[in-house]
Amino acid sequence: MMAPGGYVDGDHGDHGDHGDYIDRVQDQWQGIFPDVSSEPAGIIARVRRLAQLIQLQSDSVLMSCGIGRAEFDILALLTRTGRPMTPSELASDLLTSPAGTTKRINKLVDARLVTRESNPQDGRGALIRLTPKGQETILPVLRSVSDFEAKLTGFMSPEDRIDLTTLLRSLLTHVEAAER
Questions:
Q1: For residue range 99-153, what is the model confidence (pLDDT) as tens digits?
Q2: How far apart, in whole angstroms, are the C-alpha atoms of residue 36 and residue 158?
Q3: Which parts of the chain span the membrane according to its record (predicted)?
């Protein structure tokens, strides 16, 4: 329940040593604009900050495996779908621009991790297919990423991980539906 000042009941803005970066930001905003609720920002800002921090750390994991984020995302998508995909499908699933996706594909073709073939359903289009070298490359990288992610969430109880997954799924489903 919302308390005066925009805080959730039980959270009175004095986070001491127990608060996080977002608590401090919310405290600053509440000092400037006490009549504006910062509760929603507390959720969204944490999701954004977590995404940024996790991406920075996981990018380091990927680089230690000799692959960049852009290449990993395409290889992982092709691996998990188990089928060739058009550049448009890749761009749509990865939320990237067509031009950016083409640049990524070209780099992967040059590295012989994927092939670009004519699309039999659309003579003007292409299909991007994982090569055996791409398949060999992705498995150790996936293991490294999985180990990294397990370490990140390992402090949480299994129940907390399930609860957090459920809450994040609900938020993501809502946001994705609003995009349609």
A1: 999 999 999 999 999 999 998 888 788 999 999 999 999 999 999 999 999 999 9
A2: 36
A3: none
Instruction: Read off the pLDDT band of 169 (50, 70, 90).
Output: very high
Q: Which residue has the tokens 């950016």?
A: 100
Here the tokens at position 60 are 């380091």
The whole-model pTM stands at: 0.80
Predicted pLDDT of residue 14: 54
pLDDT tens per residue, range 20-61 = 999 999 999 999 999 998 888 899 999 999 999 999 999 999
Q: What angle do CA 155, 158, 164 make, to 5 degrees?
A: 85
Q: Are 137 and 78 in contact (CB under 8 A)?
A: no
Q: How far apart, in whole angstroms, are the C-alpha atoms of residue 12 and residue 30?
A: 11
Alpha carbon distance 34, 125 (integer Å): 55
Q: Cα–Cα distance between 104 and 108 in angstroms, integer? A: 6
State the residue for tokens 């990294």. 148
Half-sphere exposure of 73 (CA within 13 A, CB side): 18
- Rounded to whole angstroms, the Cα distance separating 61 from 54 reads 10
Residue of 69, 47, 73 whose CA lies nearest to 59: 69
Write out the two tokens for 66.
Answer: 């000799």
